[in-house]
Design brief:
By secondary structure, the protein is mainly alpha-helical. It has a single domain, classed as Sufe protein. Chain: A. The protein is built from seven helices and two strands. A two-stranded antiparallel ribbon has the order 1-2. Helix 2 crosses helix 3 and helix 3 packs parallel to helix 7. It is globular, with a radius of gyration of 14 Å.
């Protein structure tokens, strides 16, 4: 997975279709999520399209998330969000201002209002998981 800084740098210079393409590529680069994990229990609440997330606590105490979406742009946004928290300790995740780091990217401009509502759902799932393991 690419670092958030690399993603931010790339998206900062792109507009329109080029940004759409970059977001799709970010989504395509997500680690595959096994179909068996795509259940009602792993659905992210609030998303207009189906989005699944499955967190695991690694042996070193970090959190690793598998995630997928049925639509490519939301999947790309998930990739951007995960680049901030993937394989981090729960305390680091809880100290990360996810919304603040995402704000300059203006990702909501590339999603419908209904799909934008899923971003807080994904962030809440990440924070709830980090809180549970902190």
């Amino acid at each position: 997975m690419r670092s958030f800084n690399d993603i931010h740098e790339e998206l900062a210079f792109l507009e329109g279709d080029d940004r759409h393409i970059a977001l799709r590529e970010i989504g395509e680069s997500l680690e595959p999520m096994p179909a068996a994990l795509k259940t009602d229990a792993t659905l992210v609440r609030g998303c207009a399209s189906k989005v699944w997330a499955y967190p695991t606590l690694q042996s070193d105490g970090t959190l690793h998330f598998l995630a997928d979406a049925e639509a490519m742009l939301p999947k790309g946004v998930i990739g951007v969000i995960l680049s901030l928290v993937q394989d981090q300790h729960p305390s680091v995740i809880l100290a990360t201002d996810i919304e603040g780091k995402l704000a300059p990217l203006g990702l909501e401009r590339y999603l419908t209002k209904q799909r934008t509502n899923g971003i807080p759902g994904m962030i809440a799932l990440i924070r709830d998981t980090a809180t549970r393991y902190a």
